Amino acid sequence: MEDYIDRGEEVAKILQDYYKDKDGWTLSKKTKDGASISYRHSKEFDGYLYKGECMFDAPPATVFRYVDPLPDSAREKWDSNMKKIETLEWLQKDKLRINRACTASAMMGLISPRDFVDLILNKETDSYLSTNAVSIRYSKCAEEKKYVRGWNYPCGLICEKVEGEPNKTKLVSLIQPDIGGMLPRTMVDSAIPSSMTSFFSELKEALKKDGISS
């Protein structure tokens, strides 16, 4: 248990370091509704670390409730890329868990469905709420033939509080997945920024539909 807690806290620190480091980022996409996606070389594997940022007209706790990947949650309803979310084990109630997330196919079926088994730490400070995740080996969750098992290097979502504006949130997504399989790097590099912009736009639509933001 202590090892899992320590690993979760380590990932949280890594993500904050990624977020605060402004050097080396290249802008990949910018959308009309204010989302921006940037990337730089990952320090964890031979791929990229991606950063998505977008402002939302909703309180941080509300945005966090919509993005936290839990079974039967708001996230499972609005996120078209997320086909199934399972909590395999709660290690510390409402704070530390082992999750399995199954994603949809992408690039018109050229990228088949993936699944990821992650340790996730939820964290709240005076300035943000966050999910902090990293893939782990978990013997109780065998691979399924219909999914390619991917691997998430330190990743997560940060709902940053905006000083003086309690009904605004800056949402930051940091991801660096190895999605596995024998895929051309150019295909992966094209698919990930597109899925991130869809994530932000679908979240805005969900909040609007539920009357939370305009």
Task: Characterise this structure.
The chain has 214 residues and is of the alpha+beta class. It has four helices and twelve strands, in the order αβββααβββββββββα. The strands form two sheets. Strands 1, 2, 3, 4, 5, 6, 7, 8, 10 and 11 form a ten-stranded mixed beta sheet that branches. The longest helix is centred in the C-terminal third of the chain and has 25 residues. The protein is globular and about 50 Å long. The relative contact order is 0.22.
Describe what is shown at a glance.
With 214 residues, the chain is an alpha+beta fold. Helices cover 27% and strands 39% of the residues.
- Using the alpha-carbon principal axes, give the shape: globular
Helix share, percent: 25-40%
Count all strands and give the number. Answer: 12
Q: Structural class given helices, strands, pairing?
A: alpha+beta
* Low-pLDDT ranges: none
Overall pLDDT level: 94
Query: Measured on Cα atoms, how large is the radius of gyration?
Result: 16 Å
Question: H/E element string?
Answer: HEEEHHEEEEEEEEEH
Topology of this protein?
Blueprint: H1 2-20, E1 26-30, E2 36-41, E3 48-56, H2 60-67, H3 74-78, E4 82-92, E5 96-103, E6 114-124, E7 128-135, E8 148-149, E9 151-152, E10 155-162, E11 165-175, E12 177-178, H4 185-209
Descriptive terms for the model:
214 residues, alpha+beta, ten-stranded mixed β-sheet, two-stranded antiparallel ribbon, 12 strands
